[in-house]
Amino acid sequence: MAAPAARRMFRRAGILLLTLAAGALVVFFAMKAAPGDPALSALGENARPELVAAFRRTHNLDQPVVAQFVAWITGAVRGDFGRSLTLAGGVPVGQLIAGRLPVTAFIGLYALLIAIGVSLFVGTVAAAQRGRFLDTAMTSLAVLGVSMPDFWLGYVLVFFLALSFPIFPSYGFVSPADSLPGALLSGFLPALAIAAPMAAVFSRVLRAALLEVMHRPYVQVQRSLGHGRAFVFLHSILRNALIPYVTVIGLQVRYLLGGVVVIERVFGIPGLGSLIVDAAFGRDYPVIQACALTFLVIVLLTNLLVDLLCTRLDPRARA
């Protein structure tokens, strides 16, 4: 069994690398096809032609597009994403990513933990109370949660929990490296704004999966053998219902990253989301490309982890 497992891992790694290469290609040429001139954005529309030409030579913007791509991807493999076109002194992009990524990772994981915790409770209670008042109420709340844009929810949370009732800060963020309680407090509202729509999706998927598994023959057999309700639920019902649940979590990581980009801007959080928005306004192509590539790596690694978890949960996949 070791050899087939090793082949599967090599195949997954190969697919991941090919997807990453294709994504890097799309990201680079999409930026080149975008309107605007990064040299004029950095120097101003009235910059002298000789300064514009010198700027393009310094940042290799005067080279053919294919040569620029080869130079960029070669540097990216070594961890060198070039230098910012707009920030004073041409700060290395890798340094910007390293400084902002922990903040975004904290907000994203915070939101994911909230969404998972809420959805496990809501989905389980709704399935156990199928057709009753609690099921109807929680299902209605889930539909409402899916329909609410995260940025609108962020402003609503600020109005009620930061302005009307000053429980949480409305703007800014305390780094977890400085104070973990401060990070949990200042990051709660943005994390909740991202987590609420995801929790709604997760709870609906979990409810449907639990109801489907509850009526399978092997569950009825275990109950007839005298096993307790808790044992049957944990070992047979929940374990099998988690397979589609975990899969949906992996698919929602793309939404999570998109929500982080918007919410960081709303709450003034110095993460990758606000960095990529500022870079887009300034046409800072190296920063945008590096941020997009970082997001792509996060999505691919998360999908790989979800694949491994589903294989662990489902014995048929291991066989």
From TrEMBL:
<dbReference type="InterPro" id="IPR000515">
    <property type="entry name" value="MetI-like"/>
</dbReference>
<feature type="transmembrane region" description="Helical">
    <location>
        <begin position="242"/>
        <end position="267"/>
    </location>
</feature>
<dbReference type="Pfam" id="PF00528">
    <property type="entry name" value="BPD_transp_1"/>
</dbReference>
<keyword id="KW-0472">Membrane</keyword>
<keyword id="KW-0813">Transport</keyword>
<feature type="transmembrane region" description="Helical">
    <location>
        <begin position="140"/>
        <end position="163"/>
    </location>
</feature>
<dbReference type="InterPro" id="IPR035906">
    <property type="entry name" value="MetI-like_sf"/>
</dbReference>
<keyword id="KW-0812">Transmembrane</keyword>
<dbReference type="InterPro" id="IPR045621">
    <property type="entry name" value="BPD_transp_1_N"/>
</dbReference>
<feature type="transmembrane region" description="Helical">
    <location>
        <begin position="287"/>
        <end position="310"/>
    </location>
</feature>
<comment type="similarity">
    <text>Belongs to the binding-protein-dependent transport system permease family.</text>
</comment>
<feature type="transmembrane region" description="Helical">
    <location>
        <begin position="183"/>
        <end position="206"/>
    </location>
</feature>
<protein>
    <submittedName>
        <fullName>ABC transporter permease</fullName>
    </submittedName>
</protein>
<keyword id="KW-1133">Transmembrane helix</keyword>
<feature type="domain" description="ABC transmembrane type-1">
    <location>
        <begin position="101"/>
        <end position="306"/>
    </location>
</feature>
<keyword id="KW-1003">Cell membrane</keyword>
<feature type="transmembrane region" description="Helical">
    <location>
        <begin position="105"/>
        <end position="128"/>
    </location>
</feature>
<dbReference type="Pfam" id="PF19300">
    <property type="entry name" value="BPD_transp_1_N"/>
</dbReference>
